[in-house]
């Protein structure tokens, strides 16, 4: 590819706009992330979009959209380049290098939830294998028929992986099994013994075995899908290749100051480092009197986790006054076993080792050389102060999302409803407003930092304005300001403001966010099987993001008072509950809005409307409708009569889209037939 400055390419499979070759940022703090591989762009140039924050390494701009067939996954047609779905919030580990696929990955249609290759491994392994011999595989023996791919040179793609037999770094020629589960040096591949003895199973010999289904390794106590293992055929006793040879001594390192010695025992034990049960293989520190899992010998001393602002330090036991509930699963942390706790004195934040390491994308290891230095502070103001009063309060500011100066106000003129152009909730004091046009911002929304950290993900999120988007957390179509996260996730301001523990008006106990929580939301009855939900530790009550962010009070024409968010009508007959707006039955155990003075009760959807956070004028272009003109604009309420919908021919009153060039008008759900469910 020619690297002429200003060169333009079209990769509509990756991005909606053309990409232009530009010089990379010189400031280290302003380095962009590649939107394909997720790594910082340090090359002299980058392909970037002039309209939005989208950048590509020059080499990533050339990767193929599909590879067919791919030798590491020959059982299906080929591998396709997929964007990371929003529901895969933690990313997925590459089957070859074990690094997390951050933005895009290669997989096949049949195995998109099982087999992943990062963009580097997917493309490079295809290029490294001799094109003329891609259909030829080497086998350990004809009986097992286990295919291996020979890679003569693999550069740095496997720098974090090790040989499945000798556990040393993968240097030089290697063999990789189809599916990438097993990686072996060429010498280890040819010298792999077909039978061996092991101290964890002294009764019988273990034989090299090929298995197509998952198995349970008795040494590390994990289920896995490695095809090659050692098995006792009489006892069905299975061991990974990696677990068959354990190192007798693990030398002192930066994670632990003393050496660990291997101990084989059939008795179960509780690991002093993580507090969970182990069996057969453990390592003992004779100086500290610790017995730990093999994997726990390398636990990092310091990490940064998404759930906490400060650095977390590994502790083998807790001092008096340091105990508490794990801030991820909210079960009790036992004082006598290892956990991670806050490094700041006086902070009792603690998490189980198992919980904090469940998702690779939600923590990062702190380099010992950097000590406790933490760059996770919120930064970059959204406003520029122009005028302050005698108390130092900003009276006039310029916000990045508006072309005019904004003035601080404490009274709304007129009786019409006004919404904040940031969070789209009704405006309340204090607020900033534009004296030249209809633009309002809550003072709290105007003062939000451009860059901040959010407990839902580890990397920082950036504040940007959107005409409309679907929030990645609550699933509502919204206008206003959004925080943009990794993988293109977009968080509306209402969701971005929710802490991971919250006291909700609809429930008597504190709720905490659990990523593994599945089932029905008690607020709306919808299933929350992807992102998790806020659940109660004391009972089975749970709420999704859409319900946890419902406004506590709303106005509606059915009542002269504000309607308040409510839950549970007591022990009355559920059959008598009806919505006073639509007059249909209302589930007595779902969230609803009510007025105790007037005895009105309303479905939450009837009180709010279908799209309460979309701003009038939000534009939907040709990508979302089949009208012959380009743009349709959203209108929340029709004020000039009841025109007929151009599609279903029924009267239009609320929530319509209108053409900007003709009289075409349709219900929102009738007109936007091409709007996919995730937008």
Provide the low-confidence segments as ranges: 130-145
- Strand order across the biggest sheet? 28-27-26-25-29
Strand content: 25-35%
Average pLDDT metric: 82
Number of helical stretches of at least 4 residues? 9
Distance between the termini: 35 Å
Oligomeric state of the chains present here: single chain
Radius of gyration: 29 Å
Number of strands: 51
Pfam family, one: C1_2
InterPro entries: C1-like_sf, DC1, PKC_DAG/PE, Vacuole_Formation_Reg, Zinc_finger_PHD-type_CS, Znf_PHD
Keywords: Metal-binding, Repeat, Zinc, Zinc-finger
Protein name: Phorbol-ester/DAG-type domain-containing protein
Overall description:
The protein has 679 residues and is mainly β. Among the domains are: 1-62, Wheat Germ Agglutinin (Isolectin 2), domain 1 (2-Layer Sandwich); 70-190, no CATH class; 195-241, no CATH class; 250-296, Wheat Germ Agglutinin (Isolectin 2), domain 1, CATH 3.30.60; 302-365, 2-Layer Sandwich (Wheat Germ Agglutinin (Isolectin 2), domain 1); 383-447, no CATH class; 618-673, Wheat Germ Agglutinin (Isolectin 2), domain 1. The strands form 13 sheets. The protein has a five-stranded antiparallel β-sheet. It has a five-stranded antiparallel β-sheet with strand order 30-36-37-38-39. The model is unreliable at 130-145 (pLDDT under 50).
């Amino acid at each position: 590819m020619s690297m002429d400055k200003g060169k333009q390419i079209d990769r509509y499979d990756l991005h909606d706009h053309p990409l232009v070759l530009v010089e990379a940022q010189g400031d280290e703090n302003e380095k962009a992330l590649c939107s394909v591989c997720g790594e910082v762009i340090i090359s002299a140039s980058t392909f970037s979009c002039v309209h939005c924050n989208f950048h590509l390494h020059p080499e990533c701009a050339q990767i193929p959209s599909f590879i067919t067939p791919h030798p590491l996954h020959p059982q299906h047609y080929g591998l396709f380049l997929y964007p990371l779905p929003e529901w895969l919030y933690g990313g997925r580990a590459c089957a070859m290098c074990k690094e997390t696929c951050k933005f895009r990955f290669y997989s096949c249609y049949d195995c998109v939830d099982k087999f992943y290759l990062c963009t580097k491994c997917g493309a490079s392994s295809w290029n490294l294998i001799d094109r003329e011999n891609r259909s030829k595989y080497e086998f350990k023996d004809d009986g097992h028929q286990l295919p291996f791919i020979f890679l003569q040179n693999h550069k740095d793609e496997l720098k974090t992986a090790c040989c499945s037999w000798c556990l040393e770094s993968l240097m030089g020629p290697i063999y990789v099994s189809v599916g990438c589960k097993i990686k072996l040096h060429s010498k280890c591949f040819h010298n792999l013994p077909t039978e061996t003895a092991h101290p964890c199973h002294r009764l019988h010999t273990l034989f090299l075995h090929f298995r197509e289904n998952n198995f349970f390794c008795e040494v590390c106590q994990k289920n896995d899908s490695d095809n090659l293992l050692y098995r006792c055929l009489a006892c069905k006793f299975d061991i990974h290749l990696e677990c068959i040879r354990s190192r007798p001594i693990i030398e002192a390192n930066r994670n632990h100051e003393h050496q660990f010695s291997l101990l084989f025992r059939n008795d179960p034990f509780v690991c002093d480092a993580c507090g969970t049960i182990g069996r057969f293989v453990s390592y003992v520190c004779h100086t500290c009197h610790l017995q730990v899992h093999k994997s726990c010998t390398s636990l990092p001393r310091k990490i940064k986790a998404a759930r906490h602002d400060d650095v977390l330090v590994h502790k083998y036991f807790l001092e008096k006054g340091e105990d508490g509930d794990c801030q991820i699963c909210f079960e009790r942390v036992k004082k006598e076993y290892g956990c991670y706790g806050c490094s700041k004195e006086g902070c009792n934040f603690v998490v189980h080792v198992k919980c904090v390491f469940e998702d690779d994308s939600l923590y990062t290891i702190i380099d010992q050389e950097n000590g406790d230095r933490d760059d996770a502070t919120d930064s970059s103001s959204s406003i520029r102060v122009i005028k302050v009063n005698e108390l130092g309060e900003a009276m006039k500011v310029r916000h990045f999302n508006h072309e005019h100066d904004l003035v601080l106000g404490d009274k709304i003129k007129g009786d019409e409803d006004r919404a904040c152009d940031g969070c789209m909730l009704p405006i309340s004091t204090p607020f900033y407003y534009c004296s030249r046009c209809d633009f309002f911002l809550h003072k709290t929304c105007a003062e939000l930092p451009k860059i901040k950290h959010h407990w839902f993900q580890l990397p920082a999120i950036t504040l940007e304005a959107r005409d409309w988007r679907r929030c990645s957390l609550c699933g509502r179509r919204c206008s206003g300001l959004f925080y943009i996260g990794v993988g293109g996730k977009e968080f509306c301001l209402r969701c971005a403001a929710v802490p991971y523990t919250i006291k909700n008006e609809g429930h008597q106990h504190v709720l905490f966010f659990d990523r593994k929580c599945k089932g029905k939301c008690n607020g709306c009855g919808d299933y929350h099987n992807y992102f998790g939900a806020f659940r109660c530790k004391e009972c089975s009550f749970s709420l999704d993001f859409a319900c946890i962010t419902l406004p506590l009070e709303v106005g509606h024409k059915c009542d002269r008072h504000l309607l308040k968010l409510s839950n549970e009508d007591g022990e009355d007959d559920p059959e008598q509950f009806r919505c006073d707006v639509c007059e249909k039955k209302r589930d007595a155990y779902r969230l609803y809005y009510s007025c105790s003075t007037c005895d009105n009760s309303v479905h939450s959807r009837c009180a709010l409307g279908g799209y309460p956070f979309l701003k009038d004028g939000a534009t939907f272009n040709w990508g979302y409708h089949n009208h012959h003109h380009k743009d349709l604009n959203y209108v929340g309420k029709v004020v000039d009569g009841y025109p007929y919908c151009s599609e279903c021919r029924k009267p239009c009153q609320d929530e319509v889209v209108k053409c900007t060039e003709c009289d075409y008008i349709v219900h929102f759900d009738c007109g936007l037939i091409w709007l996919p469910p995730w937008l």
